[in-house]
Amino acid sequence: MTSRRFESVVAASVAWLARGAAALFLFVALALLKESLPALSHASLWGFLSGSDWRPTLPDPILGILPMIAGTLAVSFGALVVALPVGVGAALALCVAGPRTRAVVRPVIDVLAGIPSVVYGFLGLLTIVRGFERLGMASGESVLAASLVLGAMILPFIVAVCEEAMRDAVARYGAASLALGVGRDEMLLRLVLPASRRAILAAAVSGLARALGETMAVMMVAGNSPLFPTLLGRTETIPSLIALEMGCAEVDSLHVSGLYAAGFVLTVLLFALSLVAHRLRGRAGR
Amino acid sequence: MRRALPAVVRAASRFACGVAFGLVIAIIALLVFESRGVLTAVFLTQPPSGLPIGREGGVGPAILGSLLLGAAACLFGLLLGLSVALHLVFGRPSAFEAALLHMAVRVTAGIPSIVLGLFGAAFLVSGLRMGLSLLAAGIVLGIMIFPFIEVRAEEAFLRERTRLFVPSLALGVGRYATVFRLVVPACLPDLASAAAQAAGFAMGATAPVMFTGAVFYSSAPLGPLSPVTALPMHLYVLVTQGISMDHAAATALVLVAIVLILNAAAFLLSGRTRRP
């Protein structure tokens, strides 16, 4: 093959492969939408989103996922409440830590990001759920347990995003504030923390997005009853609903279609959040 | 109070750092402690046995299945990720096309893994009649990790563009001849690093493979169209069916060890190309 032909053949195949890869998400969205249509036309979009009953196996199935939407949001915001203070605090400590401390602590915290979610679920069951039961709760599986486990899972991402911005801020203001005789703690509190506001917000939004899509860990500790969430009560999230019922639902039934529709709702929610996160990051970088 | 606040913040932030650090140590220690006595050579090589199955024996087939799933995911992830990165950096896309491609990669990265599993079940498993198979699960995992590989590959390629690509073009060498003879070899440590980390991520994933190819019990897979068993799936069943907590802990420890080894390899590899 002449080199000119080689060039044009390779360039064309790379370009089309790339476009194909980029089109995959459309493909996923369309496949999902196609499978969800029967359920959405049965229950109507509004009925599906606002219905509080999920009885997919009745002869005339009732499909409403409001409790699961509420459960997903409750567990994820709970995770944020757990992880944000710890993550921001750790990032503050790390952004002024010496290079040696940093070189040890950062990789160790990053290990948290590598641990698979099913392992988190197992550990949560072993420690948190059992602990709650020992404390006298009827069932340790709860919104609180799920939030604690999810909080640990999103912690490393929050630390990473916040620390990067805070180190920038220290680089910008560190020397000047030292020259003016401002103490290091004073600088952290009055300069670095306010300067990283947007990054903290961006970290919160992307942490939230991660938490919303999480399946295994939540499913193993949240109890999976389609109830409206209370702090110490059981709940069920959209991903766990899908994971639990997909295996036993009748093929081509409204039940399966309802599960696809639930997945579609979750994807749209996450898509909106990722747009927000992207805009926040873009501005934080400026 | 105003005076004391900075010191309080410092103490709190150090404490938070300690919490995050301690959490990792506690997790590893707990797994090691809970799996004492179970983690032997037999456990690492033998198939599960006992009644109910999994109470005795080991995770040999699950380790093999997880490695195969990781490899298949890497194969598809690299194919998709590298083609997007190559086209973006060396393929002269218009600004509009580049923006679209970047947006698509970001959106794909945001699809929750359980939804990718749903897609695989509808389109690959039943639509294309792949059945529950290594192939279907590998493709789904490949889609899951391709955005990560793309971002890392694009970074590496951009670094080499001015150093290698432009001079080589100026000497009259063709674009993709330069890319395959010079740029890709120079970026190999970075690409391998991204692939290793992505493989670790794929091997730990349960939700995307539950309905596409992973089953609780199977022998060694006979081919790309047969289902496999995988460590996360094995762990999930052991825990939720209450079969054996110490076997579950040992399975989790094996899974975490594999992922951490891959992450450590990725970390070492990525350090190697970072020149001043």
Order of strands across the widest beta sheet of chain A? 1-2
Poorly predicted regions of chain A: none
Order of helices and strands of chain A: HHEEHHHHHHHHH
Cα shape of chain A: globular
Rg over CA atoms of chain A: 23 Å
Which labels suit this protein?
heterodimer; A: 286 residues; mainly alpha; two-stranded antiparallel ribbon; B: 276 residues; 10 helices; globular
What does this 3D model show about the protein?
The complex is a heterodimer of chains A (286) and B (276). Chain A is mostly helical. Chain A is built from eleven helices and two strands. In chain A, helix 3 (66-95) packs parallel to helix 6, helix 3 crosses helix 8 and helix 5 (117-134) packs across helix 6. In chain A, strands 1-2 form a two-stranded antiparallel sheet. Chain A is globular. Helices cover 75% and strands 1% of the residues of chain B. The longest helix of chain B is centred in the middle third of the chain and has 37 residues, at 134-170. Chain B starts with a helix and ends with a helix.
How are the elements arranged and paired?
The complex is a heterodimer of chains A (286) and B (276).
Chain A: H1 3-43, H2 45-50, E1 54-55, E2 62-63, H3 66-95, H4 99-114, H5 117-134, H6 143-179, H7 184-195, H8 197-213, H9 216-221, H10 238-246, H11 254-285
Antiparallel strand pairs in A: 1-2
Helix pairs in contact in A: 1-11, 3-6, 3-8, 4-6, 5-6, 6-7, 6-8, 8-11, 10-11
Chain B: H1 4-34, H2 41-45, E1 48-49, E2 56-57, H3 60-90, H4 95-110, H5 113-127, H6 134-170, H7 175-204, H8 207-210, H9 231-240, H10 245-272
Antiparallel strand pairs in B: 1-2
Helix pairs in contact in B: 1-10, 3-6, 3-7, 4-6, 5-6, 6-7, 7-10, 9-10
What is the compact description of this entry?
The complex is a heterodimer of chains A (286) and B (276). Chain A contains 11 helices and 2 strands; from the N terminus they run H-H-E-E-H-H-H-H-H-H-H-H-H.
